[in-house]
């Protein structure tokens, strides 16, 4: 009984945490803030001007504003979301010592230990 009660409390706390972070702001907000939250939930690229207005476009500021939702507690937002990967031909890391590591398995059978009785 105690384990089931703990699981129910855990599930309720997860849902309550989601409401505390996202739901409360929109439940008691005006129409502009609800529309702004809808833009975030739909992951639409937009950014804010100094006067408080919202502009929808594909600029770096818009992408950066949407990416900031994924990292609520970090202080650094990457300037762009594009990544470049190394080609597969040169993906092997540099190794200073090319000697082979010893095998983890023994070479053959060993003699069993002697009885000391």
Major β-sheet profile: 2 strands, antiparallel
Beta-sheet strand percentage? Answer: 5-15%
What's the arrangement of strands in the largest beta sheet? 1-2
Taking pLDDT < 50 over at least 5 consecutive residues as the criterion, the unreliable ranges are 72-80
Q: Can you write the helix and strand succession as a string? A: HHEEH
Rough outline: flat
**What is the number of E strands?**
2
Class derived from helix and strand content: mainly alpha
Report the average pLDDT across residues.
71
- What does the radius of gyration come to? 28 Å
Estimate percent helicity. 25-40%
Description:
With 117 residues, the protein is mainly alpha-helical. It has a domain at 42-72. The protein is 38% helix and 5% strand. The protein contains three helices and two strands. The protein has helices at 2-27, 31-41, 60-67; strands at residues 46-48, 54-56. The protein has a two-stranded antiparallel sheet. A hairpin with a 5-residue loop joins strand 1 (46-48) and strand 2 (54-56). The chain is flat.
């Amino acid at each position: 009984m105690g384990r089931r009660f703990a699981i129910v409390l855990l599930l309720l706390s997860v849902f309550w945490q989601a409401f505390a972070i996202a739901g409360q702001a929109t439940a008691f907000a005006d129409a502009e803030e609800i529309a702004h939250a809808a833009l975030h939930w739909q992951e639409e690229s937009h950014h804010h001007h100094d006067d408080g207005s919202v502009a929808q476009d594909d600029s770096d500021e818009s992408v950066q504003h949407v990416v900031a939702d994924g990292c609520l507690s970090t202080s650094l937002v990457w300037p762009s979301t594009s990544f470049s990967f190394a080609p597969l031909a040169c993906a092997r890391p540099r190794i200073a010592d090319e000697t082979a590591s010893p095998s983890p398995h023994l070479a053959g059978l060993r003699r069993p230990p002697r009885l000391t009785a």
